[in-house]
Every structure is written in structure tokens, then in C-alpha cells.
Design a protein that fits this description.
The protein is an alpha+beta fold. The chain has 22 helices and 24 strands.
């Protein structure tokens, strides 16, 4: 494994606005933690990202501001690149899809597919603005929503009722450019036959899951697409901004952004290689069958990275000797919300990364987000929790142990690392924990369980504090100098190990720890595996101890909460989930009556194979027996559920999860820490009873 090359990509952020904290937790921080860990393991890693700079939203922003699309993407590319840098992202290159190199790469794929007859041409009707003399993309058509009668529905979606639309569905359509009524005209477009690759894609995902353990949420998203059947996707569109089509009759069209954006990972690797003066070096990663390719994304990008992009690479590989590697894993995260609500640019709800880092250093944010990553379900950023993680964990646990160890050595041994003498039981116990932690935490990181990996390392810091307290060096400094010397030597060894093991999460603080230890060379700092060893040399002179993590005062957090309270989002209180979710649409009594809630008794229960959180329940509703799958395996054992009366949604459409049909949904409540508690009734309520 050490000789294997690892290719890591993080989803290209759209250059139409600044990145916010939800973006960091979705794709970027997980990718950075994983990359830093793999580099500490001594593996060759290429970490790629960049700006996605084409598409209709950018042209709409440009039209609104009276500037060019290039000016829009230039602004947000530089802003986001700077924010990522301040946050500590260690990309090998941060590219952009407006570069000529990317346009050439995307056109190479298009021309190849066209020449080999893969693409299909279709004639279709599309709205045309005669005054502007242009075909109108869906978002350039507005009108009355046929569902809710909103007068400002777009050609792709009505924001008022959420209905997905086609431009032809709108009543009284009008051009966003001129306000004129558009007319339908015939236009030709090229389509990629995605459905032709469905069988191969299903087998590809099955093999990769068996080999590298894909996340359950990713598998479920893919299966839902496969059940519906993959359809042809338009590759070209009528738009001025994007990658121009070098084919006869298509000169005024551009590539659809879904096609060119994913190829940005390949052009980014080419830019990286060119920057090193070795233009073919990118092939050692992309065209190397032994490369492990891991694509970090948010859940809204699953279809493009698990289905569309692999299909495009399969299509290329079918016609060439040089074979692109397909993702070995796509560990997509769920969404991070903000104080119980979704991030919303239009409502001013949330905080951008660049604004956050003006007020607070990056490592406390990295630590908090890493501890709350939405790996299996949506999670939340709460200001009070951010303060608590910084003050109670970074400062009081990790920082406290490091400061005590270095400061006590400075006071009692003139900042010289003392000798380590014979070991007692306390010493042996903490050194055994030290030896095991790189192994156990490493297993979590290898399987993309980053929260668990961080918790494992922090448990070492907790154990180290206990070791320091139980050893009482402030007493032995006066009564048993040799014993005190051994305690501090071991404590300083643990300080170095924590600096190594925490580097993927808090790299700036890790560097500060090494500085206090006066360890600067790569050999002295050590690799991930060396964190289980005792490498701080006796006689080493330490630098001056410094406080690593400043406490965040209550008034700072109150100011943050107060500023949000002025932002039209009621229900906010004390960093806990909002009591009233005002973002949820109200429903009528008639809507509520459509939901058939019934009491069901669990008669059988077992874990679903290969799933960390699914249980398969056999339940009885009166005279009817059903199978229900519930994501509660991390909170309940199968044995503890048998015989319980629970509440289920009885008229839900059946769904397939992990190859099993679920014929209902179990109701449960979730607290702010993600603990699930199922809704139960007394034993005197008969199964099948209606819940009113």
C-alpha cells in the first residue's frame, strides 16, 4: 500500500458565490484530513480541486451586475482560493475550468466520443427570443407556475412551491433577457447515452463497494437512479458562456456544464504537471491502473461522480489503450445545517468561510467541523457548540496537557527533556495506549470514518491528562526526582505523538507544538506510524511554552447569535435546535390526514448485512405482517426491540434499501447530538391501532 499512488479530488466549488461552512464539512475538510493522513503514512498523494466556472447561474449573475461572466468567475475564484488557503487546505493545485487547458481537455473527450459514434443527435423544440436572437436556457424563461400560480417561476423550477418544471410548462412565458414572449424553434443537440452503461455501472459499484466499503447513503442514491433507469443526457446547449463545440453546425453551442466540470479533475492534474515542468507526470496518477482514486463530494453530487463521470471514463477507455482510473470510493457526506436551518444566501442565513476566518483562527473551526462531519446524516453548526469544542476540548484537554508538560519541564528541568527511567504500571499503561492509537485511528481514517478517527486521538489526550494527574509530578519533583523525570519524559513523548496525530485536523496548531518541542526536521517530526514510538531525544532543549488555544468568551458568541437574530430566522436560541422550524412549509389538515400512522409490534429484528446502521424489522399491524427497515442500528440492539410497540407510517410507498424492501417507516426523535429515540406506546395499545 505504501507504494500505491493515491489520487484525491474534492468537488469543484461553483464560482458564483463565496464558500460557506456547509461546503467545508461536505467535501473539502474531509478530503484534506484524508490527504494529510495518507501523506503522513508516506504515500504519494495528488490532491486536486478548482473552480467550476461555466453554466447559466454565472451568466445570470453577470447580467444582473452588468459585467461579463469572466469577471464573475475571476472574483469568486480568487475569493474562494484565498479562503481555502487560510483554512489550511493543502491542494497540490487549485485550478479553474475557464482555462484554455481545460477547454482543450473537454473538447478532446467530446470530439473523441463524436468521432466514435457514441453521441446521439436529436432535434428538439426550445424557446427562442426573437428580439435577442438567441435560444433561451431554462433559467432564462420565466412565467406563471402551473402548480401554484406563482408569477415568477423559472423554466426549471418554481421556488415558491418547489415544483420541478420544463420551460414549456410555464403559463404566459417570457424571456428573462427582453421580457418578450418567446416562441418554440427547432434546435439540434448531442446526447450521451448514459443508459447504455447502466449494467456496467451497477457492476462497477458492486465491485468497488465490496473492495473498499462504500457508504450506505451513496449506494442508496445510486440504486434510486438505477431503479428509474438511466436516461440519455444532453451534452450541448445553446449558450454563449462555456466550452465551445468544435463541430460543424454546433459552433454557436457550448458543452453542458455537467460534462465539462468533472473533466476539470483531469485538466487540473495536467496543470499541476505543467507547473512542475513534467507535462506527462499527470498520467502516473490518472492513467495508472494501480492508482487509488478517492472523490470527496457532498450528497448532491453523487450522480455525477458515481454514475456520470465513471460512464464517461468507461466510454473513453473503450476506445483507447491508455485507461483512466475510475473512483475507488466516493465518500459523500450529507449536509451541514446552520443553527438548525439550511444555509441560505437569499435569507442571509449562515456565514461564509472568509468572514468566519476574519474573527477566528482556522484550527478551532477545523476541529469543530471534523467532530461534527455529516458522514451518515445531516448535522448542524451551532455557535455554542463551537465555543464548547474550542474551550472544553481544544483548550482544556489537548492544550492543557501540552502546556502543562512543556511548562512543567521548563520550570523544573530548565526546558531540557529529562531522562526516562524505569517504568511503573502507570507509565506502561499510557505507553500501551500511545502504541495502539496510531493503529486504531488509522483504521478509521482508511475507512473514511474521520469523526471516529479524531475521537480516538482525542481519547489519547484525555488519557494523557489523567496520566499526568495520577503521576503527580508536582509532588515527585520534590520527593522523587527520577520519577518526576520519567513522567515528564513520557508526557513530552505523548505531546509529540499528539502533534503528529492531530496534524490532519489542526495543522497550524500541530506546527506550533513541534516548534515548542524544538523539532523542525522531517525526521524529528516523524510519520504517522512513528506516533506510537518515543522519539523526543533526552537532552533536547525545548522552546518557550505558549498557550495554543485561546478561550472564546461568552460575549463573542452572544454577538454572533444576536447578529443572526436580526436576520429574519425566528426560533434561534442558545445554540440548540430551533424550537420552531420556520423554513418548513405549513400543511393543511387534509394533507396531514393523508399520512396513515399506525401502532406496530416488533416480532423479529436483525441487522442488515454490510450496513452499519440498518435494522430489518418484522412488524405486525393487526392481521398484517410487514418488513420495515430502520436506520437505528447504532442506537438499539435487535434484541432490545423485540416486543416493543412502535409507530410507523403505514401508507408509504415501498422502498428498497441495501437490496431489501421496506414497507413503511419507523418514527423516531433525534436530539442535537444525533441520538435517535424511537416513538413507542404502551403494551395495552393493540397493533394496527390508528395514531391520531
Amino acid at each position: 500500500m505504501n507504494s500505491q499512488k493515491i489520487l484525491v479530488t474534492a468537488a469543484l466549488p461553483y464560482a458564483n458565490g463565496p464558500i460557506h461552512l456547509g461546503h467545508l464539512a461536505g467535501a473539502y475538510l474531509p478530503a484534506d484530513i484524508y490527504t494529510r493522513y495518507q501523506r503522513l503514512k508516506g504515500r504519494e498523494v495528488l490532491f486536486l480541486c478548482g473552480s467550476d466556472e461555466h453554466g447559466v447561474p454565472i451568466t445570470i449573475t453577470a447580467d444582473k451586475e452588468g459585467i461579463t461572466p469572466q469577471q464573475v468567475v475571476d472574483r469568486y475564484h480568487e475569493q474562494n482560493k484565498a479562503a481555502f488557503l487560510r483554512f489550511g487546505m493543502n491542494f497540490d493545485v487549485y485550478s479553474r475550468t475557464s482555462l484554455p487547458l481545460h477547454h482543450d481537455t473537454a473538447r478532446e473527450f467530446l470530439v473523441d466520443f463524436h468521432a466514435r459514434g457514441i453521441l446521439k443527435e436529436r432535434q428538439e423544440r426550445q424557446f427562442y427570443d426573437g428580439k435577442a436572437k438567441m435560444f433561451l436556457p431554462d433559467r432564462y424563461v420565466e412565467g406563471i407556475c402551473p402548480v401554484c400560480a406563482s408569477p415568477d417561476a423559472r423554466g426549471d423550477q418554481c421556488e415558491k412551491c418547489g415544483s420541478y418544471l420544463n420551460p414549456g410548462d410555464l403559463l404566459q412565458p417570457r424571456s428573462k433577457i427582453t421580457g418578450e414572449t418567446p416562441v418554440f424553434r427547432e434546435t439540434a443537440h448531442l446526447y450521451f447515452p448514459l443508459g447504455n452503461y447502466q449494467q456496467r455501472l451497477e457492476e462497477y459499484i458492486r465491485v468497488r463497494d465490496k473492495r473498499d466499503g462504500w457508504k450506505e447513503n451513496v449506494l442508496n442514491y445510486c440504486q434510486s437512479w438505477f431503479r428509474e433507469g438511466l436516461q440519455d443526457r444532453a451534452v450541448t446547449r445553446d449558450l454563449d458562456w462555456g466550452v465551445r463545440i468544435p463541430l460543424a453546425g454546433y459552433e454557436q453551442k457550448v458543452l453542458y456544464v455537467w460534462f465539462d466540470a468533472v473533466l476539470g479533475y483531469i485538466s487540473a492534474a495536467k496543470e499541476w504537471a505543467n507547473g512542475r515542468g513534467r507535462p506527462d507526470e499527470w498520467k502516473q496518477y490518472w492513467l495508472n491502473g494501480s492508482t487509488k482514486y478517492v472523490a470527496f463530494i457532498g450528497k448532491d453530487n453523487v450522480v455525477f461522480h458515481c454514475i456520470v463521470f465513471p460512464a464517461m471514463l468507461m466510454a473513453w477507455n473503450d476506445g483507447h489503450d491508455e485507461q483512466y482510473v475510475l473512483p475507488e470510493n466516493v465518500p459523500a457526506n450529507e449536509f451541514l445545517n446552520f443553527e438548525g436551518q439550511k444555509f441560505s444566501k437569499s435569507r442571509g442565513w449562515g456565514i461564509d468561510v472568509q468572514d468566519f476566518l476574519v474573527k477566528y483562527p482556522p484550527d478551532p473551526l477545523r476541529y469543530y467541523l471534523a467532530s461534527a462531519l455529516p458522514e451518515y446524516r445531516d448535522s448542524d453548526f451551532y455557535w455554542k457548540e463551537f465555543q464548547s469544542k474550542n474551550n472544553n476540548e481544544l483548550a482544556d484537554i489537548l492544550g492543557n496537557f501540552i502546556n502543562r508538560s512543556v511548562a512543567f519541564t521548563a520550570k523544573n528541568f530548565d526546558s531540557i527533556v529529562p531522562k526516562r527511567g524505569p517504568l511503573n504500571d502507570l507509565d506502561k499503561s499510557i505507553l500501551e495506549i500511545l502504541r495502539k492509537t496510531p493503529v486504531t485511528a488509522g483504521r478509521f481514517y482508511e475507512s473514511y470514518r474521520l469523526r471516529d478517527g479524531l475521537l480516538d486521538v482525542m481519547n489519547l489526550a484525555r488519557a494523557a491528562n489523567k496520566y499526568f494527574n495520577d503521576s503527580q509530578p508536582w509532588v515527585t519533583a520534590k520527593t522523587d526526582r527520577a520519577r518526576c523525570s520519567t513522567t515528564l519524559n513520557i508526557s513530552l513523548q505523548i505531546v509529540r505523538s499528539l502533534a503528529v496525530l492531530m496534524e490532519p485536523v489542526i495543522p497550524f496548531s500541530s506546527a506550533a507544538i513541534f516548534k515548542q518541542l524544538n523539532l523542525t526536521s522531517e525526521g524529528a517530526i516523524g510519520s504517522w506510524d512513528s506516533a506510537g514510538e518515543l522519539l523526543v531525544p533526552e537532552g533536547q532543549r525545548l522552546n518557550k511554552p505558549e498557550i495554543l488555544f485561546a478561550k472564546i468568551e461568552d460575549d463573542m458568541i452572544e454577538q454572533e447569535l444576536h447578529s443572526l437574530g436580526a436576520g429574519s430566522m425566528p426560533g434561534l436560541h442558545s445554540g440548540s435546535p430551533a424550537k420552531e422550524n420556520t423554513a418548513s412549509p405549513r400543511i393543511s389538515v387534509d394533507d396531514l390526514r393523508k399520512v396513515d400512522l399506525r401502532v406496530a409490534r416488533i416480532v423479529e429484528c436483525e441487522k442488515v448485512e454490510k450496513s452499519r446502521k440498518l435494522l430489518r424489522l418484522q412488524v405486525v399491524l393487526g392481521d398484517e405482517r410487514r418488513q420495515v427497515l430502520a436506520g437505528i442500528a447504532e442506537h438499539y440492539t435487535p434484541e432490545s426491540l423485540i416486543g416493543k410497540n412502535v409507530v410507523v407510517v403505514a401508507n408509504l410507498e415501498p422502498a428498497r434499501l441495501m437490496g431489501h424492501e421496506s414497507q413503511g417507516m419507523l418514527l423516531a426523535a433525534s436530539d442535537q447530538n444525533g441520538k435517535l429515540v424511537i416513538i413507542t406506546t404502551g403494551d395495552d395499545v393493540q397493533p394496527g391501532s390508528v395514531v391520531r
